[in-house]
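Escalation from tier 1.

The customer reports that the assembly of two entities below gives different C-alpha cells on two consecutive runs. Tier 1 could not reproduce it. I'm attaching the input and our single run for tier 2 to review.
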Amino acid sequence: MAKILIVDDSSISRKKLKRIIETSNHQVIGEATDGNEAYEKYEELKPDIVTMDITMPNLDGISALKKIMNSYEDAKVIMITALGQGNKILDALNNGAKNYITKPFDEEKVLTSIEEALTSE
Amino acid sequence: MRETIAKLVQDVSIFSIEVKGNVVHEYFEANKEVEGIVIADVDKPVGLLMRTDFYQKVGRQFGYSLYMNRNIQLIMKSHIVCVDISCDMAKIGFIAMNRSKDDLYDFIVVLEDDKCAGVVSIRELLIEMSKTKEREIELLSKQQLILKKANEVEKIHSMEIEQKNSSIKNLLNNAGQGFLLFGKDLNIYPEYSRECIEIFGKKIENKNILDMLALSMEDENIQIMRDVFSNVFNEPSKAKNKIYLSVLPQIIKINKKSIEIQWKVINNLSQKSIMIILTDITEKEILENKNIEEKNNVKLIIETIKHKEEVNSAFENLKNFFTDGAYEIINGCNDKKQILYEIYRIVHTMKGDFALYSLHNTSKRLHKLEDILSVMLDNMENVNIYDIVELVKNVNGDKIISKDIKTIDSSLGDGYFEKDDLIAVSEERLNDIEEEIKRKYQGKDQKDMLVIINNLKFTNVKHIIGSYNDYTKSMAEKLDKVIDDFKIYGDDVYIDKKRYTKFIRSLIHIFKNIVDHGIEEPDARVCAGKAEYGEISCYIEKAEGKFIMNISDDGNGIDYEIIREKAIEKGIYSRNEIDIFTQEEILEIIFMDKFSTKNQVSMLSGRGVGLAAVRGEIENIGGTVKMYTQKGKFTRFEFVVPMIE
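Tier 1 run:
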C-alpha cells in the first residue's frame, strides 16, 4: 500500500483522481492546490507517490517537481497533464518525474502508472 | 608492462660495522616489528643482520658472551644482494628466489646513487607479484570475452542480413502497414516495407524521419519529437524509453491521410534504433468518428445526471469567468504577463474539468482558446493589455458550451439545469438511455453504465445522504467552518427515490441547521477540546417494513433555556406552561411552524428554520422524526421511515 499526495488546483480533478486511487489498495494521505503547498505537504507527509498537476497558480507543477527533487532525490512524482502539453511533459521527465497521466483520467492507466513508479528505482 | 621495485622500497635502520652486538639487541627489543637491519661501512652497505639470524646466533651456547660486546661485523651476513632502485620487479624476483635456502627471506638492499635507499622485504615482494599476476589473468579473460562477443555480433549480423532478404520482408510488404526503422542520426534505414512508399508517396531511404513526418505538423510538435528521440537514444532504461515514446503523437496527418503510428525501441546488440509502424486509418476514422461522438454523448448524459449540480456550476463558472472573473484579474493586476498567465491557467483548468465530465465539445473549444493564449504568452513583447481585453471580450461563454448544452437539452429536456430537483429526468427517458447504452456499448463499459442507470431508479439510502456531502461542505466553507466527509454506516437500504422525493429534498434543512448552528467555528472547537473538523455521521438501520436513519453532529448541541425564552417571547407558550415542560417537550417546539420561520433575525434565527418542513414531509409519508441533544456535545435527528412499495 502506497501513501499518495494529490496536487492539483482543480477540486474536480482531485476528487476524480482520489476516487480512482481509492479503488486500489493505495491511500490518499493529502491534497495540495499549488506548488508551494505541494512542497510543504511533501516535507510534512513524506508520501510514496506524488501526482502533480502541471498548470497551477503561484508555483507551477514543474517548478514544484524541481524543488522536491532537489531536496529529495528519491521522490516519485507522476505528472498530471491535459492535452497538448508535450513539451512540458518532456521537461518534467528530464527533471526526474517518473511518469505522466493525461486528463481525462483512464482508470487503468492511473493505477498502472502508480504501480510502475513504485517499482522504479 | 615494466614495473620497477620503487614502490616496494621500505625504510631500514643502518648501523655502522663498529656497533656492538648489545646495541643491536636493544634496538630489536625496542622495535619488535623490525625484520632486520643494514650494516654499512661509512655510506656503503656491507652486510645485513636479520632478526632471526641474530637471535639464532646469540642463542647458541656461549653466543651471548661471544657476540654481545663485540662488533657486529662478526655476526652479520656479508654476502648480500644489492640492486639499483630502477631494477624491475620480474628481475628482482628472479634474483631473490635464486638465493640459497638460508638466505631466501633476507632483505634485498636497494641502492640509489650507490647509497642505501632502503630494503625490499621478500614478503611484500611476493604479495605484489601475485597481485600483478591476478591482473594479468583478469585482462586476459576480458580479452577473451570481447573476442567471443565480437563473434556473436558477427553471427547475429549475418543472420539479420539473411532475414532481411527473405521471409520477413515478404511478410512486412504484405501486411498493409508501413514498417520503418531509423537510428540515432534520425535517417531511415534502407530496409522498409512497401506500404511506406504508399503512405509517404515516395521512396524514403536515408531521409530524415523528422522531415518525413513534419509536413503537416506544428513547429512545437516537431521540437517535441526531436527531444523525445534524443532522450530515447541517450536513455538506457527501457521503462523510461517507453514513457518518452508515449509522449509522441499517435495519429498524424500525412498527405491528407490519417496515419496511426506505433513507436517501438529496438535494442539490437549492434545499435539502438526506433521502429515505427504506420497504419492508414483514414476510412476507419470516418466510420468511427460518428460512433465516437454518439458514445461521447451518452457518457456526457450520464455524467450530467450523476453530477448535475457540479456540471451546472461548472457551466456557470465558465460563463461568469468571461463576463466577470477575467476582468477582475485584468483590473486587479498591473503585470500583463501575470494577467495572461492567470487567464491561461484558469482556461486550462476548466478545460480539464469539462473533459472529466465528458463534456468534450466544451473542452475542445476551451482547448482552442488555450492554444491562442499560449501563443500570446510566448510572444509577450507583442501583446499589450488591450489585446487581452479584446480577446476576453470576444469570447462568448454561451457559445463555448452551446454544443454540449444542446446535447443535454435534446436528451434531458430543455432547461434541465433550471429544474430544482435532485433528479429531473423522466423514467421513460432513463429507459431510452438504457436502450442506447445496450446498443452502443459492450462488455465492462456497458455493465458499469447500466449499474449507474439502475442506481438512478433504485437508490441506496447511504448514497442519498452522501449526495449532500459536497453541498454541506461548501456551505460550511462559506461560514468559515470545516467539516470532514460524512461518516455513513449501517445497513444498505434501497428505496425507489421518486416515492420519497419531497422528504429527501427536505433533508437539506437538517444539514443547513447542522452547519449553521450545530458545528462550531474551528477555533471554538479546538478550545472545547474537539477536533478542528466537525463530524457529521449517519447511521442506517433496517427494520420490518421501515428503516431508521440517525443523522448526528458533534457540535454545540441545543440550549434548552434559549428555546424556552424564545418560545415565550414569540408568544407560543406562557412561562407557567413552559416551566412544567420536559426536555423532550421543549425540543418538540423546534419543529413547530410558529417557531421555525425563515424571517427571524435574532440569535436563534435559523435554529429550526425549515425543520417544520422536514417534520411535515416525514409525516406525510407516515414516518416520524425525533431530536436528541446534549449541550456542547451533539445533536441527533432520528427518522423512522416506512418502506414504500
